[in-house]
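This part of the workshop introduces the protein records we will be handling. A record pairs a protein's sequence with a compact description of its fold. Backbone structure tokens are a discrete shorthand for how the chain folds in space. The question running through the whole workshop is how a given chain folds. The record below serves as our worked example for the rest of this section.
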Amino acid sequence: MRLNNQIKILKMKKLIVLLAFVSISCMGNAQKKAAINWMTLEEAVAAQAKEPRKIIMDMYTTWCGPCKMLDKNTFHNEDVANYINKNYYAVKFNAEGNEVVKFKDRTFTNPNYDPAKAKRRNSGHQLAGYFRVQAYPTMVFLDEKADLITPIRGYHTPNQLELYLKFFATRDLKKTTKEDWQQYQKDFKPTFKI
């Protein structure tokens, strides 16, 4: 009987140690996850007036698998999120949604939006067309005056996106040549942890 009690106590101790280890592991992973400070385009443009920064806009759709991968694998990467929060205003925009957006003295809508298709392919938003978005995901980069730098199409890993994030954030793009970009790509060494 005494041996049975000792075995039960030993099993309980092992269970407690295992639960403590799992809890600590989960807490460590939660701390590694970082969040981007997403805002609307109107909020980002208003923030630029107070503190000039470039804008990165994630143009996604609800049905797009690579969009979900970009969000999960890249935008939740600690280095990516921290770099974007420090150097950009970040906008997340459903390119087939029904949001009304006021931008550059214009109002953009999705006049053919069908609420019955909210979770699947829908009509494209006028703002997506304005920024020449033709596929999802597309990251649209804007300068400090909210003028288009370029759209970057497709899924990108943290290190692939790092190339663009750092180039656009650190360059006077009006003075940058095609040769500057080619040399930057050639010399670039990614530092974001995956």
About this structure: The first helix runs from residue 2 to 32. The beta strands are 38-39, 54-60, 88-94, 101-103, 106-108, 138-142, 148-153. The first strand starts at residue 38 and ends at 39.
